[in-house]
User: Fold this.
Amino acid sequence: MKQNCFVDVRDVYKDFGSDGPAGGAIRVIDGVSMTIDEGEFIVYLGPSGCGKTTLMRIVGGLETASAGEVSLAGEIVTGPDRRKGMVFQAYTSFPWLTVLENIRFGTRYRDDIGKKEKDDIARHYLELVGLKDYGDFYVNRISGGMRQRVAIARTLAAAPEILLMDEPFGALDAQTRDFLQEQLLRICRLERKAAIFVTHDVEEAVFLADRVIMFSARPATIVEEIHVTNELGKERTEETKESEVFFHLRNHVRDLMRKQSGLKG
Amino acid sequence: MAISSTSSKTSRRAKLAAALLSYRGRTEPRTDLILGLAAFIIFLGIWYVIVLTGLVSARFLPLPGDVIGTLFRLLGEASFLNDVWISVARVWGAFFLSAVMAVPIGIWMSSYRIVGSLLEPVIDFIRYLPVPALVPLLIIWFGIGEGSKIAVLWMGTFFQLVLLVADDAKRIPREFIETGYTLGAKPSQITKHIVLPAMLPSLVDNLRITLGWCWTWIIVAEIVAANSGIGHYIWSMRRFLKTPEVMAGILAIGIIGLLTDQAIRVWHRRHFKYL
Assistant:
């Protein structure tokens, strides 16, 4: 067993419809164990409805495991808190606040810093996600891609230890998606934050991940772990997607995905 | 030149007609205003015709002008203004009482399963009790003073409002609440900083609608047992068959309602600019 890993998922089971692993409930996660190193970008990939989001929510403390446990930096996860930042697919930036106020909201419950510092942090992340000119806009006036950047900035402003993202770019168009993927990687490298990113898009998974965790169809088990960084390196640019290594990896993962979705032909 | 302008005029007319008659068609605000005024004028016109042709005696249906004239005269009379003031005070007092109870209880109902499960069946039941039927009971309990008026209005609004508030609170996306948790908020902070601001626009709308209902119940309460208020005024004028006064009283309520409603709407638009 690996010692001193940052996130440790140990033998997690999840059944919906009952609290124990026995009984007539639906099993969604079937004994998953995995670890995440500090600063590592993990992508959970799997067919729709396979339970990958549920597993991430268990890591975030928003769901409880029916069996098994998750620890973060040596502490068992018992519920949601500021250490586990979350970005959702649905737009969660608050419509009654401006872009800057939304980002500042991320610092609202921090007692480690003062008012002045909170303002500075809000401005810092506003600029980091490239929304400097939109600080005074209400979020209903900006595009979906911008709203997701606001959500990411707000989460980062709370200074979480891990960033959990549930298909945050799922509702966006292809160009915006490509752009935001690069932005996200740049920011995560800069912040040296561990992250779990849930998606069912193969190309997105390979492009973003240090390691792709490929899940089976429901109930989720780990099919394979693909160590992308070993082959692609940490640096990713637009050209990465054109490289041969990327093609090779993507095709491999795509085949795995097809098999799991029952589309292998 | 002349021909083309005529033809462009007819084509514009055809377009307007098409827009007005098409299913969910679009019109300009000006057109809507003209149509609204036209309907009003036609309504008044029919009224005049009915009275002037003697179809209905002016004793039962006074001319619109007489009603408005009566209203203006009444507005100069201290006793009438006092009645108006008393009714307004009762409505606002009872409405305020209803709201300060319904808003927190409604939010609790949506926040904690146990509160919702306990209260919802009871409230749902009481909500269906017809308020006018409760008036005699409320008079037995609270007498014919202010107590029974407030009680009638409260019965008529609280139980509706509390469910509306609970629904508004429940409609807030789950992700908003979860975002709050992952940013480090405690439940009380989530209620104060996320739930309340998120539901505020629809809450204000529901309060505005409930305030309108208060005017229905106040008249019921004042007609049955009161010696002041607009309802009492209308009811006592009826005894002398003073139809213009009766109608002026009704008109006064309508105008007060309309003005309050519009004032709240304007405030709503200004305050919730982000909508």
About this structure: Chain A is about 35% helix and 20% strand.
